[in-house]
Amino acid sequence: MHYTGPMEQSEHLEELLGQHYPAALRLARSILREDEEAADAVQSAFRNVLRSLVNFREESSFSTWLNRIVVNQCLMRLRQLRRHPAVSMDALAVEPRQLLYPASRLPGPHEVLEQREAAEAIARAVRGLPERLRDAWVLHEYEGLDLRGLSETLGISISAAKSRLFRARAELRRLLTNIMGPRQAMA
Q1: What's the mean pLDDT in 23-44?
Q2: Quick check: helix, strand or coil at residue 56?
Q3: Residues 6+ apart with CB under 8 A from 173
Q4: Measured at the alpha carbon of residue 84, what is the angle toward residues 177 and 68, in degrees to the nearest 5?
Q5: What are the residues whose beta carbons fall under 8 Å from the beta carbon of 30, sequence distance 6 or more?
Q6: CA dihedral angle for residue 15, residue 154, residue 178, residue 82, rounded to 10 degrees
């Protein structure tokens, strides 16, 4: 048996990660939709792989294990971005016409309150979903992944992705009915 020292192991690991980098980056881009965010997520995922390599039990292939780490890293990044969204300075700029006619374009206080309450109820319902259903629903609804992209990202079949979305919607409907009442949940 040939002994491989730490230096040799490090080179093999670098080579292995280098082989998987392009696929991991494509996966991250399909979730995050931004090159810079995707590259950061893959770098963080690879750091996690290096730290937890001793936990790899070879119950699945290395690429499947790596892809799950990349997906988890991307989902964490999406959660961070939703909690602390970046606002560009251009978005804060006010058009002169908006200063002259602000009331004609803005919703009234009652509408703003209704929208805020509905958004809070939906957010509460989404947080109440089991993780597997929540991940599928968020990737589909917020990130715009179609069934094929969803199945690839989660490492499941297209029919399983379709089933998760169906169950997520049914559970959301049930949770929203409990939160808002039957009439408002259907609106």
Answers
A1: 87
A2: coil
A3: 185
A4: 75
A5: 145, 149, 152, 153
A6: 40
Which tokens is 45 given?
């995922």
CA end-to-end span of the chain: 69
Residue 52: how many CB atoms within 10 A of its CB? 11
Q: How confident is the model at residue 86 (pLDDT cuts 50, 70, 90)?
A: low
Domains of the chain with CATH codes: 8-85 (1.10.1740.10), 109-187 (1.10.10.10)
DSSP letters, 23-53, are HHHHHHHHHH--HHHHHHHHHHHHHHHHHHG
Q: What is the value of pTM for the model shown?
A: 0.44
Placement of tokens 């609106």 in the chain? 187
